[in-house]
Amino acid sequence: MMFERFTKDARAVVLGAVEHAERMGAETVEEGHLLLSLLDREGSRGSFALASLGLDRQKESVKEALAEVRRRGGLSRADADALSGLGIDVAEIVSRVEETHGVGALGGDKKDKRWWSGHRTFTRGAKDTLEKSLRIAVGRRDRHIGDEHILLALTVLPGVAAEALADHGVTYETVTRVLYGGGEAKAG
Asked: Contact, 145 vs 6, CB < 8 A?
């Protein structure tokens, strides 16, 4: 694909996302795994932006938000709200499934974390994130894709990662201001 254009930090984010998926027993690598991997980074442009916006002190809150999304079977809050408008109570469905099959049953996490040792594929959303990071880098006339471009892509594409980041004051605009100037960014 375009992996040769990734910086060392961006490659570490992608590999870290695979490791997060493995530890969680997930069959696929998702955008949330990319975000978790970004939160693990230190000494990179992406980690600088996250720390500048205060997310380094809110890692557990972001992890809890992503875990809650897994409990809902990957549905974002916006998805759950849309279903609610149709009379479908996602919280009630999750509760009933968990009563029968155990907590986290909709999340796809396996009880036996060693169940899979093969290659994990990336979901459409994770692939879209990596492709968007390329477009952002090209749009900024950057020669390489850094972890900051992955972070920017996560903030701009709709989904659970963008929702979790926005809930913590991390948006495309605030990250752009921190990385490229244009005023002081403040996390909410």
From this structure: yes
- DSSP letters of 65-134? HHHHHHHTTT--HHHHHHHHHTT--HHHHHHHHHHHH-TTGGGT--SSTTS--SPPEEPHHHHHHHHHHH
For the chain, which residues make up each domain, given as ranges?
A: 3-180
Q: Model's pTM, two decimal places?
A: 0.77
Give the whole-angstrom CA distance, residue 34 versus residue 15. Answer: 9
pLDDT of residue 77: 65
**Averaged pLDDT in 10-residue chunks for the chain of 188 residues:** 84 95 87 95 95 91 82 64 69 64 56 54 94 95 95 94 92 96 53
Tell me how far apart the terminal alpha carbons of the chain are, to the nearest angstrom.
Answer: 36
Task: Calculate the dihedral angle through the C-alpha atoms of 67, 68, 70, 74, rounding to the nearest 10 degrees.
Answer: -130
Architecture of domain 3-180: Orthogonal Bundle (1.10)
